[in-house]
Amino acid sequence: MREKRLLSTKNIVIMGMLGALAAVLMLFEVPLPFLAPSFYGLDLSEVPILVGTFALGPVAGMVMEVVKILIKLVLKPTSTGFVGEFANLVFGCSIVLPAGLIYRFHKTKKGAMTAMALGTVIMSLVAIAGNALVMIPFYSKFMPLENILAAGAAINPAVGNVWTFAAFCVGPFNLVKGAVVSFITALVYKRVSVMIRSIGMEERKEKHQVQV
Description:
mainly alpha
């Protein structure tokens, strides 16, 4: 029954629209040079996906993450051999999945804020491990590791190896990103959720007219 509800015409349209919007937002990045080197950029692509996750559930959130990546690849081909896109997918799911699960059982303003806060922390931890184990070693094939670490040390002198780079640059960067995304989501969710419900009402009206 849940699968049928998730794959309703309304939900497919909503997931496609929000996933496409997220893909466009993913193309626009803003560096935060006081937290991480300039090759890390903050984008707001998780905002429409979090909105969709709260409205439709955590599974829908992961579907939208996949849609986002696929459309982004159409708009802008990969420059990292799909490693960057895969990492973005994993990091994105690491915030929307826990946030969606918590909100499913606590559909209040406090529940939403708790969900996004926990999702932000989990995303930051996953990003730290993912960068230390995968991303930084991968990018070191194109940019000397010493230069990457030096860029991090210029921001935080505590950076001396891959793990400290991930902990003191990548971690705070993702905490700030999650906070910004959560704040914007909290501002827009109520208005967007009204629009989503209106789409559902139109779908039910059409079905009723067909049956009559």
